[in-house]
């Protein structure tokens, strides 16, 4: 959970652990993930929705995954404020509960949807003939909705937890939290890891033995399988291993709070770094869309070309306006305009010559 970061005055933590040195890391990662994750997942959700309307079953899961990551990325500014405020929650208990609920749901809905993606590709590749015509978008949409509903119900007790000034920071670990960490490691990480590893290993082996697929197609399927496993391990394994370590420490030390607090102090910086890896999952998941869908590269290339053309047209228009403004003559001053003739001095006639009267009285215009 986005806790275990620092103890501040006014926030009731059982251990006096300082995480001041890792605050910059947390703020930097949260800010970067928010800045990158919001546009990346908006684009992924839009493209995946378009692919789903064209009949892609896999795009349904990818669309749900992007929406899940988009929702979590929107809460990251609140975590930034929390870290900057010495890890005291000042936005009210319900804001903390909703923000933490979104974090938990994002973490485990992502795990479930990655399992769904792996299983769908496993069926489509390993049982290509048997599954033809049986993979339907409606089934994928129902499974995605069931994932959101199930994970949401499991974490609904978050709204009943006591407000202690912090936002879900419990130090040291007690029996309730230890059981919670064990269940999160087993059901939220170990089981999904087995499913993802098994299905993707079979996908890679089946594709390698296939003679009907081109080399480019094999490479794309293989890269997708590797990306799914790598993203899951990189983002989720370190974070859940720390949870397992803390739960095991409680089982070993029991009620020895001094030993548990020493452990919290030793793994504090590591906990922050691994939590940041779990947060990076919001940016890493769009990579799966680029690798997994058939039209993703063409769509991304098209959007890039359109953006480049629009940018070039905008720059050309700005340059044209700049040249026009430089070449246009400055506005004529009314005081020096040739519209106002300057009175001419009467020319004096030379002695002994005759000048017409009109020549003496007609004003002379100032040449422009």
Protein described:
- The chain is mainly alpha-helical and 368 residues long.
- The chain has a single domain (20-309), classed as Rhopdopsin 7-helix transmembrane proteins, CATH 1.20.1070.
- It has 10 helices and no strands.
- The chain has helices at residues 23-53, 58-84, 93-126, 137-154, 175-209, 215-253, 257-266, 268-292, 296-327, 357-361.
- It is globular, with a radius of gyration of 34 Å.
- The chain starts with 22 loop residues before the first helix and ends in a 7-residue tail after the last helix.
- This is G protein-coupled receptor 132.
- It holds the Pfam family 7tm_1.
- GO terms for molecular function: G protein-coupled receptor activity.
- It is a multi-pass membrane protein.
């Amino acid at each position: 959970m986005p806790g275990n970061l620092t103890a501040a005055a006014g926030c009731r933590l059982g251990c006096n652990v300082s995480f001041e040195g890792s605050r910059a890391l947390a703020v930097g990662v949260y800010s970067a993930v928010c800045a990158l994750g919001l546009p990346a997942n908006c684009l992924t959700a839009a493209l995946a929705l378009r692919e789903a309307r064209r009949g892609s079953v896999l795009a349904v899961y990818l669309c749900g995954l992007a929406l899940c990551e988009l929702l979590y990325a929107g809460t990251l500014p609140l975590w930034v404020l929390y870290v900057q405020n010495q890890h005291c929650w000042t936005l009210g208990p319900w804001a903390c509960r909703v923000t933490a609920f979104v974090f938990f749901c994002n973490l485990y809905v992502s795990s479930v949807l990655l399992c769904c993606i792996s299983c769908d590709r496993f069926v489509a590749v390993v049982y290509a003939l048997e599954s033809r015509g049986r993979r339907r978008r409606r089934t994928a949409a129902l499974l995605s909705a069931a994932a959101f509903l199930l994970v949401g119900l499991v974490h609904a007790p978050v709204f009943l937890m006591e407000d202690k000034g912090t936002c879900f920071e419990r130090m040291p670990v007690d029996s309730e939290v230890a059981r919670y960490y064990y269940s999160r490691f087993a059901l939220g990480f170990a089981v999904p890891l087995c499913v993802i590893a098994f299905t993707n290993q079979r996908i890679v082996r089946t594709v390698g033995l296939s003679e009907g697929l081109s080399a480019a197609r094999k490479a794309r399927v293989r890269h997708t399988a590797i990306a799914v496993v790598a993203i899951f391990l990189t983002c989720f394994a370190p974070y859940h291993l720390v949870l397992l370590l803390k739960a095991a420490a409680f089982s070993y030390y029991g009620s020895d709070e001094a030993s548990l607090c020493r452990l919290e102090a030793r793994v504090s910086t590591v906990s922050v770094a691994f939590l940041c890896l779990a947060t990076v999952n919001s940016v890493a998941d769009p990579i799966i869309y680029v690798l997994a869908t058939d039209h993703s590269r063409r769509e991304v290339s098209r959007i890039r070309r359109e953006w480049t053309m629009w940018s070039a047209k905008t720059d050309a228009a700005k340059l044209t306006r700049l040249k026009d403004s430089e070449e246009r003559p400055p506005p004529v001053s009314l005081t020096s305009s040739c519209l106002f003739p300057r009175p001419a001095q009467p020319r004096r006639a030379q002695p002994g010559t005759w000048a017409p009267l009109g020549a003496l009285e007609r004003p002379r215009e100032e040449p422009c």
